[in-house]
């Protein structure tokens, strides 16, 4: 569940101050899957970064489940981020590591004493079983993004934030990746917020929110 109240956020743009959000409030229900649309520059990525605790609001409250992250300090935010999954357009895989090592990397950092029970079934569901020993550069774009999804899901997050994860993929691969992502999140009861520019991909989501002038136009 995401609850945002009176969010205000501005950033310095040269000599000027650019106000992106000025009293923005919304709720996203537990397990809801939301497609986030909006014109270029409307603030979609900024909003994801605020929800991920990568940026701090000037004022207002951001609550993710029971965590009031807008009041967290840097250490609390670092701890909080272990509980969410982030997926990016540029897959952000480490090229010197194999697919398996990439999937396990964050899990090892977050949970050094736990073995990742879900690994085998997850890679099978994502069609990656025969790719585990390859390097990311040996995979197609769609396969690389599935590695990013496996990496995000392995930590069993309550929330996944995905920023245009299909931006580099053709239409067929985009549909395949988003269908997999939404199906896996639904089965695991994970809140999903995904930025996309594609109206067609919104069919896989429970709701669509369009960001314009610092508010949702829905
Ligand atoms: N690091 C930064 N420093 C200063 N301004 C920034 C920074 N990042 C983004 N902006 C500005 O903030 C505004 C919102 O950017 P943001 O990336 O959130 O938009 P977006 O809706 O995700 O756009 P797109 O669809 O093009 O990715 C834009 O005007 C952008 O120029």
From TrEMBL:
Keywords of this entry: ATP-binding, Nucleotide-binding
Domain ABC transporter, first and last residues per copy: 2-218
Nucleotide-binding listed as a keyword: yes
Gene3D superfamilies: P-loop containing nucleotide triphosphate hydrolases (3.40.50.300)
GO cellular component, one term: plasma membrane
Entry GO MF terms: ATP binding; ATP hydrolysis activity; transmembrane transporter activity
Keyword ATP-binding recorded: yes
UniProt name for this protein: ABC transporter ATP-binding protein
Species in which this protein is naturally found: Pseudoalteromonas byunsanensis
């Amino acid at each position: 569940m995401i609850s945002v109240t009176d969010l205000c956020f501005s950033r310095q743009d040269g000599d000027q101050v650019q106000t992106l959000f000025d009293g923005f409030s919304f709720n996203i229900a537990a397990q809801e899957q939301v497609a986030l649309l909006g014109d270029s520059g409307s603030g979609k990525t900024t909003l994801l970064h605020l929800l991920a605790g990568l940026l701090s609001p000037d004022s207002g409250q951001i609550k993710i489940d029971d965590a009031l992250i807008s009041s967290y300090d840097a250490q609390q935010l670092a701890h909080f981020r272990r509980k969410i999954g982030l997926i990016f357009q540029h897959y952000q895989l480490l090229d010197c590591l194999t697919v398996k090592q990439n999937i396990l990397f964050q899990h090892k950092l977050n949970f050094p004493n736990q073995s990742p029970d879900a690994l085998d079934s997850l890679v099978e569901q994502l069609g990656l079983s025969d790719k585990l020993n390859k390097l990311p550069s040996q995979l197609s774009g769609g396969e690389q993004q599935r590695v990013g999804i496996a990496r995000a899901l392995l930590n069993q997050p309550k929330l996944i934030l995905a920023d245009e994860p299909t931006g580099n993929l053709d239409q067929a691969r985009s549909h395949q990746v988003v269908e997999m992502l939404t199906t896996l999140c639904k089965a695991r009861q994970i809140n999903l917020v995904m930025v996309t520019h594609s109206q067609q991909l919104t069919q896989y989501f429970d709701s669509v929110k369009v960001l314009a002038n610092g508010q949702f136009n829905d």
